[in-house]
Design a protein that fits this description.
alpha/beta; Spore Coat Polysaccharide Biosynthesis Protein SpsA, Chain A; two-stranded antiparallel sheet; 10 strands; 32% helix; 20% strand
Length: 239
């Protein structure tokens, strides 16, 4: 894959205005700012021409540069509460291509709030993407375990409950139900062409690359943060 390095870019979208967990992208996570774990994983792969942090925050930009990422500009749009992460990444890609006056074939989006995803995760997923001739986007995901949506119920305005999914019997055993995959923001990959064409990594026939729940932890609030800390301890405990 090394000969393709100049055609690949890693983009880490990192908005400065997080509401549920203020400054989550640079809050401390076991001795390093949250975003530093993602930058480190991306750089260790040696797969990318550029590891770009796309942010609207000068504070985040300074932290990112200190850990080896490239931040040649601040994001000029799609940094509000309503823009999707795909839109933010696409904005960063277009800005970078204009800035460098070059085009990239493959874009790998790495969320800053997924500190447990490793360089090996990224390498393996890029290999899987390129093995399939870059025909469809590939997103990281993990299989539901204890919190399986097959058993989900919804509560209506009158306080009554009903099953959200009705395509199986009440007596069905969990082992008889099909596996369900939950997307995680750890690593999303697409061709630049398709990302520009569809405006999302959920392009036609997208697929998933499965990782463990520990690697997949995606931090949006304090409960997620505690879960990520537990995953870190599980990975690093001496048994």
């Amino acid at each position: 894959m090394d000969n393709l390095v100049k055609d690949r870019v890693a983009i880490i979208p990192a908005r400065g205005g997080s509401k549920r967990l203020p400054k989550k992208n640079i809050m401390d996570f076991f001795g390093k700012p949250m975003i530093a774990w993602t930058i480190k994983a991306a750089l260790e792969t040696e797969l990318f021409d550029t590891v770009l942090v796309s942010t609207d925050s000068r504070e985040i930009a300074e932290v990112a540069v200190s850990y080896g990422a490239s931040v040649p500009f601040l994001r000029n749009k799609k940094a509000d509460d309503h823009s999707t992460v795909s839109e933010a990444t696409l904005t960063g890609l277009v800005q970078l291509e204009d800035f460098n006056e070059k085009k990239y074939k493959t874009v790998v989006q790495l969320m800053a709030n997924c500190p447990m995803r490793t360089s090996k995760n990224i390498i393996d997923q890029v290999k899987s993407f390129e093995k399939n001739n870059l025909q469809k986007s590939i997103l990281s995901g993990f299989q539901y375990g204890m919190f399986n949506p097959w058993w989900a119920h919804i509560k209506d305005n009158e306080g009554n409950y009903r099953k959200l999914m009705n395509n199986f019997d009440d007596d069905s055993r969990s082992q008889d139900l099909k596996d369900l995959v939950c997307p995680t923001g750890a690593t999303w990959i697409s061709t630049s062409e398709n990302l520009k064409k569809y405006g999302t990594f959920y392009s036609p026939n997208y697929s998933f690359f499965e990782i463990t729940w520990q690697e997949a932890v995606d931090i949006d609030d304090y409960e997620d943060f505690k879960l990520a800390k537990a995953a870190y301890i599980l990975r690093n405990e001496k048994i």
